[in-house]
Amino acid sequence: xxxxxxxxxxxxxxxxxxxxxxxxxxxxxxxxxxxxxxxxxxxxxxxxxxxxxxxxxxxxxxxxxxxxxxxxxxxxxxxxxxxxxxxxxxxxxxxxxxxxxxxxxxxxxxxxxxxxxxxxxxxxxxxxxxxxxxxxxxxxxxxxxxxxxxxxxxxxxxxxxxxxxxxxxxxxxxxxxxxxxxxxxxxxxxxxxxxxxxxxxxxxxxxxxxxxxxxxxxxxxxxxxxxxxxxxxxxxxxxxxxxxxxxxxxxxxxxxxxxxxxxxxxxxxxxxxxxxxxxxxxxxxxxxxxxxxxxxxxxxxxxxxxxxxxxxxx
Length: 314
Hints:
It is built from 14 helices and ten strands. By secondary structure, the protein is an alpha/beta fold. It has a single domain, classed as TIM Barrel, CATH 3.20.20. It is globular and about 60 Å long. The chain starts with a helix and ends in an 8-residue tail after the last helix.
């Protein structure tokens, strides 16, 4: 099975949930024991940060791999620590692939021509982890240079059984500044959505979806519902759940009747659950992995109880 969304939906069916765990390590929020251990085995603060990120994310992967179908490492948190951070990112992606998880690298790359081809070649491994140096199943991309930004990424994605998630209607508060601007009576995010959907018309998998997805924020539930209807072949990546304020009721519109078609991301709410009042009284700081597990299971239950994804549990 090489088609990206067919592989993704098989993983969702296996885990019975569309929950996606983002991996967003922040040095000042990591468990003190993890940071101290990293400092003891490295010579510089930069190397210590990268080593701590590697250990922290790897241990999260061990916890969530039996529970969810996919993880989404945020490249920027790793890249800020230079070569050591990039090596940690590569290690984390490989660890997740070896654990049977779908890996979406959140790098938001976007360029044209040979530069876009190079980005695509580097990140999009797709069905074979050895096909690209970063080994990701899928990549987030920024389309705002135009359709020719996307075409080299789409070509590689289809060839390798990889996926893309194009920024369409993002979850940040300032998204409307550009994305809601109208051209010929149509909002810009709808124009981008139409282009994304067009790529999927001739590359639809057995599951009914193509490999070119859209990022649509849970913090805009009306637009999420609108775009689910307007993009029937397009898988959605939905950030904004949890720490950004959205709950299951806000993401419900992203699913089809079978409970498929969307991955719902939570990063900080799971990564640093032991710092949340909901879990801090139950779990001590050294029990942070138990808190991660509890937060993941709570997210899965909330999605099952209050969205069409509940049918996956039956």
